[in-house]
Amino acid sequence: MELILWAFLPFLPAFIVFPFYKNVMKSGRTALSIWQQAILLIYQINLYLLFVEGFFFVLIPVLIAGLFAPNKRSFFHAQGSFWAKIFLRAIGVKVSVEGEENIPPGPAIYVQDVRSYLDGAATLAYLPFAFRFVFQRHLFGVTFFGWLERLAGYLALEPDALDLMHDDVVRILKTLGRKENIVAFAEQGNVHGGVALFSIHSKLPVVTIRIKHDLSSPPVSAFLARPLPVSIRLSIGQPITSGKYSGDKTSLQMLSQDISRGLNPTK
Fold first, then answer.
1. In DSSP terms, which residues pair with 236 in a beta bridge?
2. Residue 193 CB: number of other CB atoms within 10 A?
3. Which pairs count as long-range contacts for 153-156, CB under 8 Å and 24+ apart, including other chains?
4. Would you put residue 235 in left (φ > 0), alpha (ψ -120 to 50) or beta?
5. What's the angle, vertex CA 264, arms to CA 262 and CA 242, rounded to 5?
6. Which residues pair with 213 in a beta bridge?
7. Distances from the Cα of 7 to the Cαs of 11, 40, 53, 82, in angstroms?
8. What residues contact 153, with CB distance under 8 A and at least 6 apart?
9. Residues of the chain falling short of pLDDT 70
10. Cα–Cα distance measured from residue 209 to residue 261, given in angstroms and rounded to the nearest whole number
11. Rounded CA gap, 260 and 56, in Å?
């Protein structure tokens, strides 16, 4: 018990400055006074401390246990889903899923739009099936996090990878051939052309996941005592089959447009 109390002692300043911190964030001022800068610094230090403590008390034990797990990929996905759910609840984010009846009985290619960096955590925590994320390749070059992504079995994809002989494309098609689900991201509504390519050549449907929330950035009370209520809704669309498309450039563009309309039905 004493160890837990000492672990949370460094966060005491955050509880003290919290009311002032909210006012600083609401002011939206670019030129901050020394007092306001001090409040922000305390907040940033506490975020860093929380990250360090989370690393030692959660991540390291999970990594060690994962090394001895019979199915490492399933183990890390389950752990990631569990801790993502804990994280979202801790910072006051409520997630709901609608359209679960649209989930195909077999494997599929899921495409999700992105509105904040919490969207990936919401997907990991609340989608009711196992899957592998597809990230842009440059993210795998980030120190340590790239190693974690590879350890979890996530897949890399170059922005311009549209060649069936490209290593990233070959690897993803092999994954789909093993009847595994993948989740790709459409940042700012831009669907990677490879998604249509994967669907046509794997003969698997594409399912869109729209993100609906009142959140443009994480709540300012994240990691503090009084979280602000924020809701995220994952809306799963109807499967888009690729049977009527061929593998030529025009068909790829048409399928990509259909996927984009699934993410942005008002356009």
1. 209
2. 17
3. 153/72, 153/73, 153/76, 153/77, 155/182
4. beta
5. 20
6. 232
7. 8, 21, 8, 22
8. 72, 73, 76, 77, 132
9. 1-57, 90-92, 188-190, 214-229, 247, 266-267
10. 12
11. 41
Q: What is the model's pLDDT at position 4?
A: 44
Token pair of 10, please?
């460094």
Nearest partner of 185 among 250, 248, 116, judged by Cα: 116
Please check whether residue 236 is in contact with residue 264, taking contact to mean a CB–CB distance below 8 angstroms: no
pLDDT value of residue 37 = 64
Length of the chain: 267
State pLDDT tens for residues 222-248: 444 344 567 889 999 999 987 777 767
Name the pTM for this structure.
0.75
Per-residue DSSP letters for the chain?
A: -HHHHHHHGGGHHHHHHHHHHHHHHHH--SS--HHHHHHHHHHHHHHHHHHHHHIIIIIHHHHHHHHT-SSHHHHHHHHHHHHHHHHHHHTTEEEEEE-GGGS-SS--EEEEEESSTTHHHHHHHH-SS--EEEEEGGGGGSTTHHHHHHHTT-EEE-TT---TTSHHHHHHHHHHHTT--EEEEEETT---HHHHHHHHHHT--EEEEEEEES-SS--TTTTSSSPPPEEEEEEE---B--TT--SSHHHHHHHHHHHHHHH-TT-
CA neighbor of 8 nearest in space, from 229, 228, 226, 225? 225
Q: To which residue do tokens 């061929």 refer? A: 246
